[in-house]
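Trying the structure run again after the queue cleared.
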Amino acid sequence: MEMEKVEVCSRCRSNSRSLYLESDVPKWYNKMPLTLQECNNCHLVYASPRPVPGPLYKNMMAGGEFAQRIMKRKLERPKVFDIHRKIVRQAMNHYLGEPKSLYDVGFGAGSIMMVAREEGIESVGGNDLNGHAAKVLQDQGYDAVCAFTQDLCVTKQYDIITCLDYLEHSYTPSADLKFMYELLNDNGILFLKTLYLDSPKHKDMGVSWPLFGQGHFHFFWPDVLKDMFTETGFEILECKSAALITIIAKKPAKS
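Done. Tokens:
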């Protein structure tokens, strides 16, 4: 597994950082300890060293047996369609008017996209690193792309964007938020859910928190995440924190 050190914060580009955590308890790559740094300037927490993304996701993007198992497991999660239908309806209720389009960043197995179509949304797209899922969804008529978010070139805009359990996996969370902002129509809605530091389980479990470990490369204090939204240009409509943090935000119309 090829590893890389993170020399600057992906949010503010500062190279000033302090050690936040170093532990052998979470399973990390190459039998190394998980090492998290906290930016001294903007307080974003990130893993360094971390795997180089291309080789890490090569098999997933190729769409082989591993990618097929992941899609099957995600579609078989208990009540996943009920949960995602509720999320889609929440986002639709925050949109001024009748939304016609939705884009899911990190679509996983495509359940959000499937529900959105059932709810009457006409144009549904998304991206993920699961090449098998992308092919299956393309065959079903969805605008599904297998690609890193930072590599996308999407020319159309959407009324709603959903982003569930994705941002912690991103190597470039601030840039991805900016991408989502530009992808939205004026008054468009972003529904985002991710992990956060000092959540109840994190406080209770410490370094044994299940969300420490492989695949998660950024960790967010709630105030840091909210600042990332507002500095991108979003207006936060709702922010709720339980096991995870959920933010519903709007791209304000240009005056």
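The mean pLDDT is 97. Worth checking whether this holds up in the mutant runs.
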